[in-house]
Automatic annotation (TrEMBL):
Transmembrane segments: none annotated. InterPro entries: Epimerase_deHydtase, Lipid_A_modif_metabolic_enz. It comes from the Bacteria. PANTHER family: BIFUNCTIONAL POLYMYXIN RESISTANCE PROTEIN ARNA, NAD(P)-BINDING DOMAIN-CONTAINING PROTEIN. Residues 3-218 form the NAD-dependent epimerase/dehydratase domain. Signal peptide: none annotated. This is NAD(P)-dependent oxidoreductase. Coiled coil: none annotated.
Length: 293
């Protein structure tokens, strides 16, 4: 398929481009960063610089595509003014899905976020109702990032109501790659770390890229939302024991697929997408949380 990948110079976008090309797709990469005015490296995808908050840019990028992977976004609400996060993320998503509908794109893969339920960056903190968290968990976002991602999922719902496009929204957990495992997850492995909002969950970027390839090739109708995470938690801890230790009975514990389970359930992605992650923090870190390289 002819696939457009937005946010192609980010960690998720780069991995998605590589995985899609390896799967045989013809990829056009786009981002706000400037292209390099040199001869392309062998096998490099076509690149277009675009600001997707501009509808004209989005339509130019989407023209001729058969599928869109929309990974472009400001990735958290803490390092930009709230209105910038919300406007950038929501309008880029709106413009891309609008262009996809108008051009008859058949598949749209929307990179959403595990933060959609709202308990990651709240001004009035609260805990998830239960764990592992799944797609049925109530959605109560407060911050501009989670709101923009929630509204992005609603844009997918609207698109399938008015056209034949098929949409998949992926909600990845905290995305890791070989360059940041030790910095991000090392403390949790070494010390049993504070849980944070994600309850020790994480996603390997290459497993996420594999899920994106599956979503592009899926024939699921309508719009489906899937959590994407590693099956284990950072540190390989006894998940139930850690939840009880840190939260007592404040979080309902639901059945676990394994003792060292993630804080997110990917059962739906396993069942409907065929998502089968192959990578773990153990591939990058030793039991002391130090890099194996």
């Amino acid at each position: 398929m002819r696939v457009v990948v937005t946010g192609a110079h980010g960690k998720v976008g780069r991995a998605a481009v590589q995985a899609l090309q390896a799967a045989g797709h013809e990829v056009t990469a786009t981002d706000v960063t400037r292209p390099v005015w040199e001869r392309k490296e062998p096998g490099a995808p076509r690149y277009m610089q675009a600001d997707l908050t501009d509808a004209g840019h989005a339509f130019a990028v989407a023209r001729g595509a058969e599928a869109v992977v929309h990974a472009a976004a400001i990735p958290d609400p803490t390092q930009n003014p709230p209105h910038v996060v919300f406007q950038n993320n929501l309008m880029a998503t709106f413009n891309m899905i609008e262009a996809a509908v108008r051009f008859g794109v058949s598949r749209f893969v929307n990179i959403s976020s595990e933060t959609v339920p709202g308990y990651f960056f709240p001004e009035r903190p609260f805990l998830p109702d239960y764990a592992p968290v799944d797609e049925e968990h109530p959605v109560r976002p407060q911050d501009p990032y989670a709101l923009s991602k929630h509204f992005g999922e609603q844009l997918m719902d609207a698109a399938v109501r008015r056209s034949d496009i098929r949409c998949v929204s992926l909600r990845p957990s905290w995305v890791q790659h070989e360059g940041n495992y030790e910095r991000n997850l090392g403390p949790q492995v070494r010390e049993g770390g504070e849980p944070g909002a994600g309850l020790w969950s994480y996603t390997d970027v290459y497993d996420l890229a594999d899920a994106i390839v599956l979503a592009v090739g899926s024939d699921l109708p309508g719009h489906e939302v899937f959590y994407i995470a590693a099956p284990d938690n950072a540190g390989g801890h006894d998940f139930a024991a850690m939840v009880r230790r840190h939260f007592g009975d404040a979080i309902e514990l639901r059945p676990l697929a394994r003792t060292d389970a993630s804080g997110l359930s990917c059962a739906k992605a396993h069942r409907m997408l065929g998502y089968a992650p192959k990578r773990s923090w153990r591939d990058y870190l030793d039991d002391d949380g130090r890099s194996r390289s």
